[in-house]
Amino acid sequence: MLRLFAVLSLLIATQTWPGGAIWSSKAVASERNVVVLLHGLGRSKSAMWLLAHRLETAGYQVESIGYRSLHRTPEQILTHLQSKVGNCCASSDTKIHFVGHSLGGLIVRAYLAKNKPPNLGRVVLLGTPNSGAHLADLYGDKWWFKLLGPTAQFLGTGRDSLPRSLPAPDYPVGVIAGIANRVSNDHILPGDDDGLVSVESTKLEGMTDFVVVQTGHSAMRYSSAVANQVVSFLKNGRFLESPR
C-alpha cells in the first residue's frame, strides 16, 4: 500500500500519467478560462478530483460543484447550480466552460437552456445519456432503484424524461462516450456501452464533435485519454483524432 501511494504521489508530482501527456500550464494562453465541473448521480465533487487536477495543470481555473443528486429534484439541483455558478463566474471578462459527467452533463444542459451566460465557452459531456438511460427504463420500478432518489426517476427514455425534455444545444458541445471491456450485457443494454450508458444514447442532436474512448462509465473520470480529449475540445473546439 505504501509503495502504491508513493507511485501515485510521484505521478501527480511529475504530472505524467500512463497513456497520457505531460501536462503544462502553457497549454492555455489565458488565465481567464474557468471550467465548471459537475459529477454524476450519487457522487460528490471529490469524485472529479483527478480530472480537476489535470484541467488545472492544463491552465484552467476549475470550479468543481457538488450537489445532492440523491435527495433533490432536477429543479432543486438547478437552483443550487445557478447560485454556485453566479458566485464563481459572474465576471464578464472570464470565459466559462462546462464539463459534466453522466447526470452532470444533463444538469449542465438543463442549466444552459435557461441560464446561458454571455461569456459561455465550450461544453464537454462525459458518458451522458443524452437520449435517456435504458437501464432507468428497465429498472425504474424496482425498490432499490427508487433509493437513488427523485432525479433518477427522470432519467429514462420516455417523453417526460429529463433527457428528452432538453432542447438541442446552441453552443459548442463535445460528447465523449465510453466502451468498457466486459462480458456481453446485450440482454439488458444492446450495442456498445460503458457498462451503464450505451454509446448511441450519448449522441446529441447538434453536437459539435463526438469521440469514443475505451473506458468504463465511472473510470472515465480518471482516464488520461478522456482528459486529453476534454482539454483538446476546450482549447480547439475539436477532439483529438484517435482510434476506437
Describe the SSE topology.
Elements (H helix, E strand, L loop, with lengths): L1 H13 L18 E6 L10 H9 L3 E5 L8 H15 L6 E7 L1 H13 L4 E7 L7 H6 L3 H4 L15 H4 L7 E7 L19 H4 L6 E6 L9 H13 L8
Parallel strand pairs: 1-2, 1-3, 3-4, 4-5, 5-6
What does this structure look like?
The chain has 244 residues and is an alpha/beta fold. The protein has a single domain (25-236), classed as Alpha/Beta hydrolase fold, catalytic domain (Rossmann fold, 3-Layer(aba) Sandwich). 33% of the residues lie in helices and 16% in strands. It is built from nine helices and six strands, in the order αβαβαβαβαααβαβα. It has helices spanning 2-14, 49-57, 74-88, 103-115, 134-139, 143-146, 162-165, 199-202, 224-236, and strands spanning 33-38, 61-65, 95-101, 120-126, 173-179, 209-214. It has a six-stranded parallel beta sheet with strand order 2-1-3-4-5-6, sandwiched between helices. α4 (103-115) links the parallel β3 and β4. α3 (74-88) packs across α4 (103-115). The radius of gyration is 17 Å and the shape is globular. It starts with a helix and ends in an 8-residue tail after the last helix.
Gyration radius over CA: 17 Å
User: For the residues shown, what is the average pLDDT?
Assistant: 85
Helix-residue proportion: 25-40%
Number of strands: 6
Termini, distance in Å?
33 Å
CATH architecture: 3-Layer(aba) Sandwich
Reported for the largest beta sheet, the result is: 6 strands, parallel
Global outline? globular
CATH topology type = Rossmann fold
Largest sheet: spatial strand order:
2-1-3-4-5-6
Tell me what portion of residues adopts beta-strand conformation: 15-25%
CATH superfamily: Alpha/Beta hydrolase fold, catalytic domain
Structural class: alpha/beta
What is the C-level CATH assignment? Alpha Beta
What is the N-to-C order of secondary-structure elements (H for helix, E for strand)? Answer: HEHEHEHEHHHEHEH
Number of DSSP helical runs: 9
Uncertain stretches:
1-30
Whole-number total of structural domains: 1
